[in-house]
Amino acid sequence: ILSASVCPGNYNHFMMVMVMVMVMVMVMVIKEESMQPKQKSLEVMPNQACTAGKNQQTVELDQKLERLSRVAYISMLALDVWEDKDAAIAWLARPNQALNGQVPIMLCKAESGSKQVQRVLLALEWGGSA
Questions:
Q1: Whether residue 5 has pLDDT greater than 50
Q2: Interatomic CA distance for residues 128 and 120, integer angstroms
Q3: What is the C-alpha separation between 16 and 122, in angstroms, rounded?
Q4: In a 10 Å sphere around its CB, with 0-12 CB exposed, 13-18 middle and 19+ buried, how is residue 12 labelled?
Q5: What Rg value do the Cα atoms of the chain yield, rounded?
Q6: What is the pLDDT of residue 12?
Q7: 58 vs 117, which has greater pLDDT?
Q8: DSSP assignment of the chain
Q9: What is the pTM of this model?
Q10: How confident is the model at residue 58, as a pLDDT?
């Protein structure tokens, strides 16, 4: 049923999108489970160190989710531009002159780096200079 509704040329793209959606759903489930309050005993009172640690864990998890989201978006954009999974992966994994010799996927650690990679990919897609 699934393959019948998808054009053969777009099947790889469709599958990659589905994998990315599944990853994002799994991450959201993990985040939601980690945010669920544990059943507490009346004798146990939370101390500030424990609460601060949970807040720090939440911040770190949010940062990881943001990074994952940037990598997923840039990966999909690269696939759209190159129209070939192997070519997109190769481009993302090699140093790029338009990015001052930096590796595109590594720049996705930060929002500003992700924007630089996006700018280059969109320029490639539309035939402009980065």
A1: no
A2: 9
A3: 20
A4: middle
A5: 20
A6: 61
A7: 117
A8: -TGGGS-GGGHHHHHHHHHHHHHHHHHHHHHHHHHSPPP--TT----HHHHHHHHHHHHHHHHHHHHHHHHHHHHHHHHHHHSSHHHHHHHHHS-BGGGTTB-HHHHTTSHHHHHHHHHHHHHHHHT---
A9: 0.60
A10: 85
Residue 96: phi and psi, rounded to 5, are -125, 130
Average pLDDT score over residue span 101-105? 95
Amino acid letter for position 6: V
Residue written as tokens 């939370």? 46
Q: How far is CA 127 from the centre of its chain?
A: 25
pLDDT in tens, 25-62: 556 556 555 655 555 444 444 555 555 666 888 888 88
Query: Average pLDDT for residues 90-110, to the nearest whole number?
Result: 94
CA distance 70 to 113: 10
**Token digits of residue 127:** 């035939």
Round to whole Å and give the CA distance between 6 and 42. Answer: 56
Q: How remote is the C-alpha of 101 from its chain's centroid? A: 22
Phi, psi of 66 (to 5 degrees): -60, -45
